[in-house]
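User: Here's a chain of 186 residues. Predict its fold as tokens.
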Amino acid sequence: MKTDNLKDLFDELDFDIAQPATDHEERFRQKLQQQNKAKRSKRSGVISLWGPVMAIAASFLVAFLIFQGLLSNPFTTQQELANVSPEMKQTQDFYASVIKTELENLQEQKTPETEAVIEDALNQLEILEKDYQQLKKDLGKSGQDKRVIYAMITNFQQRIDLLKTVLEKVETINTLKHTSHESTII
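Assistant: Prediction complete.
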């Protein structure tokens, strides 16, 4: 490039600007059609036989996948911890039974003095249950991600810890209620 002039630049380059013959496009199309006919004639027996067979096989495959998806999809939008493995099923069953037992103990301790504390605990348990439902959805979406499984187990542990703490508070309230301080001499 001797100068910065665009015209000089394009003048130096050799562009092929000749017009093709008028029947060039027609000849090109004819050659393409001849090539396609030759390829089709070689494979026409195979295609005519395998085409319907492949269509039927594809239909069965799609039907099978849909049927499998409806019956047991491992990645549904919501999945239980028990579906991950037998050990996780045992873990879920254990935590569920402990939570049920602690809730029954809490309900037995319910008195007018402890009602507010117990109601607050039940509200907090509902929040943890909603979190657990979201974690079940996340488990289905994540494909059994270990972090989600750990979060689900932690959720169970938080519920048990909450119930134990509330039971201790209820017992403290009940012992304070029954303790008589009038006979104590200062």
